[in-house]
Request: fold
Amino acid sequence: MKNQTTITEFILLGFSSDPQMQLFLFLVFLIIYVTTLVGNMTIMLVIKADSHLHNPVYFFLFYLSFTDICYCSITVPKMLVNFLAEHSTISVHGCIAQMFFFILTAGTEVFIVSAMAYDRYVAICEPLRYVQIMSKGVCVQLVSGAWAIGFFYALLNTVFTLKLHFCGPNQVHHFSCELPQILQLSCMDTFTNEMVLLISAVILGATSFLLTLVSYILISSTILKIWSTAGRRKAFSTCSSHLTVVGLLYLAAFSQYAKPRSVSSSGVLEEMFSVQYSILTPMLNPIIYSLQNKEVKSAIGELLRKLKFLKL
Reply:
């Protein structure tokens, strides 16, 4: 690799180079980010403050909200700064660090969602043993396991990325440092990196998806055995919020793999799907759970009444 200059920073091209469009996008994503922070922090605060919500399903929701805050905070603040900066740059090591934490939180979120599916399975299919099976220790182990899997997944891909050499070009056709875009800029053979990414992503995604799918197959089988229409509706309503979140999560993943290669080369769809799963989904999750969950809505209302009383 003689006569090759080592690149020390990348240029994140983002969505547009037009200053007026960048200002507009700054305002849009600032509103989305603030909404995400307020929504998820509200969910966490309500769960901590209301003793009625101190049970496994809300334990998982608490950590889903925490993960969502981390998830979007890894990329959005830097993106907001770049909208206003003359040069949207990030150091190579900063880019790899951003990639590591992005993969970590993405992998963790996938398995927290699977843990929530298992919780719904136990609640509906094993109601008499629910408290025994979903003990506090088990819930802590499931969340810890999700973070451990996410960490291993991120560490594995990051270690192989650190072995790469970057000598130009240094323009990332994206608003953040995602691994596929970084691999395209390496002047070394990235076949091993691509295989590690593919195999680890397939194992992670397939395992999580199968756990969630099997849980809901068993849940559906149990619900269909309920004679009462009202009983079936009540049982299904306990899963509706989680099903919506699962749909949003896997929609982006399946769309990413299903999109035509000829279109993907432009990078437009990559950015659209990235916005969905890394920015919009963390914002929508607390809205979904607050709108479709009577207990959460009641707890939020009670918290607002207490805050209003304190002001008086």
